[in-house]
Amino acid sequence: MTQRASHSFGEQTPEAHGSTGPPGSAMIDAGAELDPVHPVRLPAPAVDPRGLTAAEVAERIARGEVNDVPVRSSRSLREIVRANVFTRFNLIIGVLWLIMLFVAPIQDGLFGFVIIANTGIGIIQEWRAKKTLDSLAVIGEAKPTVRRDGVSAEISTSEIVLGDLVELGPGDKAVVDGTVAEADSLEIDESLLTGEADPVLKHPGDPVMSGSFVVAGGGAFTATKVGREAYAAQLAEEASRFTLVQSELRTGISTILKYVTWMMVPTAIGLIVSQLVVKNNDFKESVARTVGGIVPMIPEGLVLLTSVAFAIGVVRLGRKQCLVQELPAIEGLARVDVVCLDKTGTLTEGGMDVTEVRTLGGADDTYIRAVLGALGSSDPRPNASLQAIVDAYPDDGQWLCTRTLPFSSARKYSGAAFDEGGGRESSWLLGAPDVLLPEQDPALAEIEQLNEKGLRVLLLARAEGPLDGPDIATGAVPSALVVLEQRLRPDAAETLAYFADQRVATKVISGDNAVSVGAVAGKLGLPGAEHTLDARRLPTDPDDMATAMEENAVFGRVTPQQKRDMVAALQSRGHTVAMTGDGVNDVLALKDADIGVSMGSGSEATRAVAQIVLLNNSFATLPSVVAEGRRVIGNITRVATLFLTKTVYSVLLAVLVVCFQVDYPFLPRHLTLLSTLTIGVPAFFLALAPNKERAHPHFVRRVMRYAIPSGVIAAVATFVTYLIARHHYSGAGALDAETSAATLTLFLVSMWVLAIIARPYTWWRIGLVVAMGLAFLIVLVVPWLQNFFALKLVGAAMPWTAVGIAVVASAGLEYAWRLVSRRFPV
């Protein structure tokens, strides 16, 4: 006899619904009246079970009734150029540059060319990152199954048209709005849209909202709203945007720039008045020195370098088949101190093997094999456990499946009812033994021994009542134990060792038996794998749950809602939590975690809510992602200190010049040279260097606690040298000599700041510092460079005085940095 599953979608006909309208027409009208947040049951619409015809699809495409929402909403080239060019500080620098082109030699306008080059680099790097992201997004794009002309095929989300019949299975995400046309125990989770935690059982005629996902059962729905009209379209578009928002790093830099602007405006006004009015100097010379005082106040390269570092991080991760759906995820992973792992698909590969079947209660072995074969063929989309049974016990097609109960993570079992022929009927459940059996059942001891070996055990039990009964598991008669062996990922042990070495706590959270999960974790060398806890005994109080989470490493029998609660409990203790998973039961926890990581082969729902998708399905990629995040954040924190030290000493020098009513000591060319050698070039290399230190919070405080004392010391030392030089030199060319002496002091102090930041030293870091020092020395000794930069040391006494002051200031820097580290720890 040929098997006919009761959930066959093709069985439903237009006549069954009592309507003869054109395919999808009734559904489209009904769907237009839906309240997306509080949907109501509608009459079952008329649906052609074969779906749309090719002619109907072509007609809808011609009318523009296509799901035209872009897969990714990464910035266009025009938006990238606009974002990098039209900035507040570029505007200020651009105006100052135009002024300098009219009043001073070209060398005093070098800062303008540097900004043009920097902006070009930023545009190119972000464009590279965009292309990498977009190409990876196509690879990882959800491919919904659509039935047309009676044939089911996967198509791109953007190819769905109005009225298409879209099939659904466990883990599938609804990509457009629609109305259920076919349903077989179809349960849909709408919590990401409505906040309702419990899955909703759907029947024909019920609405389906885009952004919801299937947790159990199967079915099909007709698309009633596509494109930007779909309920969650705008939400999905924003979620996948190429963006740097909601990032502590970006927020911190914005805060710093806001304070810099407040300081810069009054200081610049005072400097202008001082140089143009009070001193009454030569107009062009005064303008040049005024601009020379304003330009270095702006940490213009800091924003650029941050964008470049993020963009390069995206490109690097892209080469490892890692799709970063939200750029802050790179930063977030750098701060992670707890990683929650779902065992199946993360520590273990998707496949399993049946090692043995142990009958219980004298059940006949041949009969049990027939039951398992029928159960395996009853589900059109078997999970890994059921697939192993399908492979081991193929169905002979003699039994007729009359009803199915799809697997649910909440209940931990599935079921099916069969007509065995000859008037015999039976109902069977297959699932977690400790859920289907009472606590004192003697079979649990045998199961415990198997679990301790890392084996997975399912119980086959005969149900006494109908499958849709509320207490179907109660009184079920145990018939057999199905023992499964899980395939460990070959790279999992090495990855767990990496996290242990990096002091990142690893928590294994699984729906499987806790002892079995602990045994698997123990085989992989997970620290604390012996500390297992059954989540059914987990306290419900958030504080007590947080304590249990911190004290244990392995958790079994965890429900989807518990996963979410466990993530929240860890976050309540100040932990930054990353959650990995590939199943629909992980979606809620992935969404609430600080960083959600999904496997590329995972369900559409998990890929949709995760910030990072591992397209190669390799858990071993995660350390690379963490390392990339640490590199970006750690290095940006380093170089930000360089940029803001310059801002502090520039503002303070301007204030001292105004207070002492003297000429500003520098022309723009001097500070362009200093910025290039002590900040620009070194910062570029330092920002891209390896850095494994875990990122810490309070970015602004961490940076400013060093930048302020460094900037103050540099400004005071430079101004002292300048005042001494003013008394030492006189006559024609005195100002140039004074400027050269002050420049020497400022360069040496800035180089010492660079030398501190470059620690711990490696051969290339030492080489970088030495190269910058040699470059400045070349400027001092090559005649045409002396003239170009207006730098010439006069005599011996004053240059050596400048060096002596710089040495004292450098000693002060060492003391200040040590003092700050002790007195103001972060």
TrEMBL record:
Residues 1-11 have a biased composition (Polar residues). It is a multi-pass membrane protein. It is found in: Cell membrane. Pfam families: E1-E2_ATPase, Hydrolase. The chain crosses the membrane at residues 85-104, 110-127, 259-278, 298-317, 648-667, 673-691, 703-725, 737-757, 764-785, 797-817. SUPFAM superfamilies: Calcium ATPase, transduction domain A, Calcium ATPase, transmembrane domain M, HAD-like. Residues 144-238 form the P-type ATPase A domain. Keywords: Membrane, Translocase, Transmembrane, Transmembrane helix. Residues 1-30 are annotated as: Disordered. InterPro entries: ATPase_P-typ_cyto_dom_N, ATPase_P-typ_P_site, ATPase_P-typ_TM_dom_sf, ATPase_P-typ_transduc_dom_A_sf, ATPase_P-type_domA, HAD-like_sf, HAD_sf, P_typ_ATPase. It comes from the Bacteria. This is HAD-IC family P-type ATPase.
